[in-house]
Amino acid sequence: MQTKKLNNWIEQIAPQYPLMIAGPCSAETEEQVLATARGLVDKRVQVFRAGVWKPRTRPGSFEGVGEPALPWLKKVKDETGMKIAIEIANAGHAELALKYDIDILWIGARTSVNPFAVQEIADAIRGSGKVILIKNPVNPDLSLWIGAVERFHQVGMTDIGVIHRGFSSFRPGQYRNEPHWQLALDFKKRYPNIPVILDPSHICGRRDCIYDTAQMGLDLQYQGFMIETHIRPDEAWSDAKQQVTPERLLQIIDKLCLRKQEFIDPKLLDKLEFYRQQINQMDDELLELLSDRMKIAQEIGKIKKQKSVAVLQPGRWDEIMQKAVEKGQNLGLSEKFIQRLFKAIHQESIEKQEQIVKRKNLKL
Ligand code: PEP
Ligand code: MN
Q: What spacing in Å lies between the alpha carbon of 13 and ligand 2's midpoint?
């Protein structure tokens, strides 16, 4: 993909860094849309977002107002001068978005996983001259994300950007959607001409971590943000926990120190690279040490076989674990981590020794 001209649009919409897209998860009522937009009138917020068709996990939840919400968004544009952005998930949505002259269209995370849907939308908006933003697919697959971008590029769209909104995970953690920063940074590195926008709202899933996550995006040189904002967040019909009031959003922007000279700092990426290289080196050393440890365990296995001693000796195991936990804690590592780590190491040793004990004709 040759991506020379894909970033002009962002400078036109947001000449002052960064691009800020804000607005509710869903357009609910005309009053809610207009009141939220009025609270966002500030030159640092250039685009108003609202979900008109909502991809919900379970049927029966609020699925969006649909077409009747589109004239409300036109009112926002006429009254505030902000550009308007909505999510489109099929060709029908695309046609309506074009009919109501929506400025920016985005592909949601549940749509960008589906090449058929993406192609259908790409065909429906080709030649429209609109800005298209592609959210990362829900699963952490860089090629799938790139593939979705390529489909829009192939039909001749030139104003393209991507939105990093995190990835689904089986393990419950601190985030609603795991950021996997490295994956988005790989995208940035590969396509430096495609703006990358951060959506801390869907990464965090709760409003108290939005500022820190946005600051991380700033440090990593993201070109813009999409932050869900609602006039009465607690009453929102979707994603209530992660939305902030317009007032709070403006406070977050103030706190972020969005000055361009601070953001263009190639030294930061160099520093990151420097640390990563050290981590890679340490990981190699860890693996080599583990392999040496296993070889010694195998030697012990041979002796156990020769002397017909049982592989598993609980006393010895308790002693190893106790020592490791003590030492680990002195080094600032948690007991839980040491226990998990040593259980895994011990399990591997036992398996290696059992292979030896079961082997016939062992040469000593
Ligand atoms: C949204 O932006 O409200 C939304 C549904 O996002 P995502 O596609 O990232 O889940
Ligand atoms: Mn949402």
A: 23
DSSP 246: H
User: Which one of the ligands is nearest to 237 CA?
Assistant: 2
Considering only CA atoms, which residue is closest to atom 2 of ligand 1?
25
Closest to 112 (Cα-Cα) out of 66, 85, 147: 147
Nearest-angstrom CA–CA distance, 134 and 197:
10
- Pairwise CA distance, residues 306 & 175, whole Å: 52
What mean pLDDT do residues 169-178 have?
A: 88
Count CA atoms within 13 Å of residue 61 on its CB side: 11
Task: Tell me the residue ranges of DSSP E strands in the chain.
Answer: 19-23, 47-49, 83-87, 104-107, 131-135, 160-164, 196-198, 224-228
42-58 pLDDT, tens digit each = 999 999 999 999 988 88
C-alpha of residue 111 to centroid of ligand 1, in Å: 10
User: What phi, psi does 122 have (nearest 5°)?
Assistant: -60, -45
Categorize the per-residue pLDDT at 197 as very low, low, confident or very high, splitting at 50, 70 and 90.
very high
Distance 23 CA to ligand 2 centre (A): 10
